[in-house]
Each structure stands twice: as C-alpha cells, then as structure tokens.
Amino acid sequence: MIRQMLSRRSEWPAQIPDPDAPPPAGLLWREARSLARALWGRVRPMAPEPNPDSEHPPVMVLPGFLSGDWATRGLRVDLRRAGFRCYAWGLGFNRGATADIIERIDTRVQWIIDRTGQRPALVGWSLGGIYAREYAKRHPDKVARVVTLGSPFSGSRRANRAWRLYHLVARHPVDNPPIDFHPAPRPEMPTFALWSKHDGVVAVDSARGSPHESDRQVEVDCDHMGFAYAPTSVAAIVKALREELA
C-alpha cells in the first residue's frame, strides 16, 4: 500500500514556481536595520575628486525608488576613495519612471562627458539600474559599462515587494510605465548584475537574470539597502568597474 502511495505521489506534476513571487517575508526585518545605516552614510564628508588623469572612467550613480543622491552619498564617497571620479545623478527624488527620464539622464551624462572628456560607467541601485540599462541601450556611445545593484531587470516586474507602493507613488502600474522599457536584453557594453540571496525587496532571479542578460552575475553578501553602503557591495562594485572582459 505504501509503495503504491509513493508511486502515485511521484506521478504528481511538479509545482511550478510563481514568477511573481517576492523574496521571503523573513528578510524584510534586515532591510529596516540597513535603511538606518544607509541614512547614516549621508552625513559622511565627501572625498575630494581623484586626479583627472585617472585611468578609470568616471562613474555616475543612479539611486533607487523613493531615494535620491542623499542615499548614495556614502557609496560615492567610497568610490572616490577607491580612485574613481564619481558623480551623483542630480535629478532629485526618484519617484518612478517618467516619459522624459531618458532625456533627463542624457543631460546629466552629457555634462559628465563634457567635464571629464570620457564616457561614464553607470552604477544603478534597484530601479536606478533599470534606468541605467535602458539608457545604455539607447545611447551606447555614451556609456562605458553598466553595473546594477539588486535591480529587478529580469522576468516579472512584480517579483519584488515594492510594486504595489510603486503603483501608488508613480501613478502607473509597474508593468505599464509611461516609457517603453525593455530592461532584460543586455546592453552592448560590459554589463554586471550584482544580486544577493539576502535581498528582502527584489527576488533573486529578477536581480540576477539569465546568463545571456549580462556579462557577469555577481553574488554579494548584503541585503537590498546594503547595496548602497555595505563593504562587500562596495568591493564588488569596484571590482566590476575595474574588471577587463575578454
């Protein structure tokens, strides 16, 4: 009888994973603690800009949803200390995609090019990484490389714990923005996707993506908020910015 039951059970169809499934709820408590640490980073003094003859391209950091340059200040301090000429995105509070977001980013990127004489690398945290990938595909001649930090660029746009809040704040569904976004296809320049199994906001598969959607998928030991300040994240970003791809 037991053998028959086991045999029948083995014939049951395999459970299909929910493509919209967010990260486990148990990870959220870590995010609240990390938010306080990210806020602390805004009071750190900004390091001086490195020598303009630096061998590395300049870097522009794009903030996540419901954040701004204040939230990436600590990261920019660390990147400057690592030898990068690092710039804020300068576009205010990130309330979600707008019809002119690519044009606004282009204005800032062109300012960096005019100032440094080089194409910048784009480092985008969460939603900022979506912007970075999309901008890079539309303006490949203006971007040196792309690094995303826990960005939900692959699969379902609802495989995260922020899509309902996004809908309320941005006034449009996360899967129907006012601009034609196609974040999953890989930009033509070197592209790195940093992800974490401890991310309490964005699902792993969404932030890691498929192998063909980026040149490197890099696991980082931090939570979602920690991408903006954790030493493990900073080290992974610096490595991604310096790595030469064959």
What's the architecture in CATH terms? 3-Layer(aba) Sandwich
> What count of helical segments does DSSP give?
8
The computed structural class is: alpha/beta
Q: What distance lies between the first and last C-alpha atoms, to the nearest angstrom?
A: 59 Å
CATH class: Alpha Beta
Adjacency order of strands in the biggest sheet: 2-1-3-4-5-6
* CATH fold annotation: Rossmann fold
Number of strands: 6
Helix percentage? 25-40%
Q: How many separate domains make up the residues?
A: 1
**What share of the residues does DSSP label as strand, in percent?**
5-15%
CATH H level: which superfamily? Answer: Alpha/Beta hydrolase fold, catalytic domain
Estimate the global geometry from the Cα principal axes: globular
Tell me what the structure shows.
This protein has helices at residues 2-10, 28-40, 73-81, 101-116, 127-138, 163-170, 204-208, 231-242, and strands at residues 59-62, 86-88, 121-125, 146-149, 191-195, 216-219. The chain is an alpha/beta fold and 246 residues long. It has one domain: Alpha/Beta hydrolase fold, catalytic domain (Rossmann fold), CATH 3.40.50.1820. It is globular. The N and C termini lie far apart (59 Å). The mean pLDDT is 88.
Quick structural overview:
The protein is α/β, with parallel strands linked by helices. It has 8 helices and 6 strands.
Break the fold down into its secondary structure elements and pairings.
Blueprint: H1 2-10, H2 28-40, E1 59-62, H3 73-81, E2 86-88, H4 101-116, E3 121-125, H5 127-138, E4 146-149, H6 163-170, E5 191-195, H7 204-208, E6 216-219, H8 231-242
Parallel strand pairs: 1-2, 1-3, 3-4, 4-5, 5-6
